[in-house]
Design a protein that fits this description.
The complex is a heterodimer of chains A (353) and B (215).
Chain A (H helix, E strand, L loop, with lengths): L1 E6 L4 E9 L5 E10 L1 H5 L6 H23 L8 E7 L3 H18 L3 E5 H13 L5 E6 L4 E8 L2 E7 L5 H11 L6 H9 L24 H14 L4 H29 L8 E4 L6 H13 L4 E2 L3 H4 L4 H13 L26 H4 L1
Chain B lengths: L1 E9 L1 E9 L3 E10 L4 H16 L8 E5 L5 H18 L3 E4 L1 H8 L7 E6 L4 E7 L9 E4 H7 L5 E3 L19 H10 L29
Parallel strand pairs in B: 1-4, 4-5, 6-9
Antiparallel strand pairs in B: 1-2, 2-3, 6-7, 7-8
Helix pairs in contact in B: 3-5
The chains are: A alpha/beta (353), B alpha/beta (215).
Chain lengths: 353, 215
Amino acid sequence: MNVLGIETSCDETAAAVVHRDANGAGEIRSSVVLSQIEEHSAFGGVVPEIAARAHVEALDRIIAAALHDAGLELAEVDAIAATAGPGLIGGLIVGLTSAKALAWAAGKPLFAINHLEGHALTARLTDQLAFPYLLLLVSGGHTQLVAVHGVGHYERLGTTIDDAAGEAFDKTAKLLGLGYPGGPRVEQRARSGNPERFTLPRPLAGRPGADFSFAGLKTAVRLAAEAASPLSKVDVDDLAAGFQKAAVDCLVDRTRNALAMSAGTRFTALVAAGGVAANKAVANALQAIADDHGLPLVLPPLELCGDNAAMIAWAAAERMSLMPSGADRAGDADHPALARWPLDSLKPPQAAA
Amino acid sequence: MRVLAIDTTGPACSIALADFGESESVRGCIVELMQRGHAEALVPMLDRLFVEAGVAAKSVERIAVTVGPGSFTGLRVGVSAARALALALDVPAVGVSVFEAIRESLGDQAPPFAVALDARRDEIYLQDFPAAGQAAKPVVVSLQDAAGMIPPDCHIVGTAAALLGKDRGLEVFPLDPVAVARAGSRLDPALSPPRPLYLRKPDAKPQAHARIARV
């Protein structure tokens, strides 16, 4: 089956066509992502109203481009999917409303997809991974450890109690004047820095559980930077390195705890997803954990780490494949956009139909 | 020409389907008052309209949508839906400003008049339609400035009429989606694209203060 996916939950306007065969193998037929980095860079972060305005201006062209790249007419796709949450409500409404209108006019089933489920199932698109696996989702908006037991069956082992990991990277970059988006720039400067020079905290590390906290680390970076100001290039490199090391240590500590918490579950792999998973220091640290547990580490390719519509189309394809044929999907025509929509509140598709 | 009109810019979710040719024939029209929830209501409402009218979506030849000014979220619901419908049905979509839709809904009533819409924060969205010549450029102005910009003998129409001390205005509420369809049938899609007319910039200020001083 071919599914057209739409993603507008943050600052990427994206559309994609994904094919899933009867054996569960996936193939991305097209994936178009228009980043709004330019629009937001002057503000040092995503401005919701600017994002919503950019989505509505671009989305129909992006959808047309995704169909064109896939060599398909809208009439030839089997379903239409859009991110319905969680995310910035203005953008979600643009994408979901467009998908509803497309699905209605073309007479196709509509899937309102949870953005986090898209990230959670990406490893099955790229690697046909079997359930269950442990997912570390680390992005600008989310930081979670999730036991993925099946489609629609997610057990959240830990989440951030304040900032997301990617948010901490962005805010550190802003503080150090490195520009936006901050993740890649902090990583680049950290390469030549000394991570031991500044003493920075590892919030929650050593404590029980798998929750995250990055607010205290962010504040500590600010205080250290203020104490050292005016900052030389070496100071900036060392602060970036110190921050990155502390953030990685937190991710490692919590991931190890999550594995210990689910010792009774025979995971097939450790999977990372989200923009921060593209960070080499994070990936190396996760590889070490996976090696210790005798698990493969599955990292999505760079273009699937960040927000994209292929994962949304894929999540819908996974759901559709589990539904009794002919099941009615008109139910999502009035599905609301949800700024908050916890992953563990989802149900398997049989129950939803 | 069969036109599907959508208006979600204000406190109603409204759609109409009408044929325009030598005469005008309204195939269906639904107006539901709501402060929020347009995004959830719109597509089920479309479904109902077409079932009741007994026509297929494929018979639509043009989409007309109000582009604002109005609720930012609301107008994006309509514009997103219109652009997606245009893509799916391979027909043009045309944007109709709320000012233009109100002018259309007044029918043969002669100018001069001004359309004034309550923009909140003591501001008004204003467009002047003089007796002769082109309509003025739509603007957002303070209540005070608006009063000075409108000639004393000018009729004021729209939700801000009362704010400006006039008693007219209520007769155009809620906006008539058939008027949106009619205006949309006349306008050139190339000159009136389905692009939001916000009139206000987003509330956001560049941040320079957050960074620590560098050597």
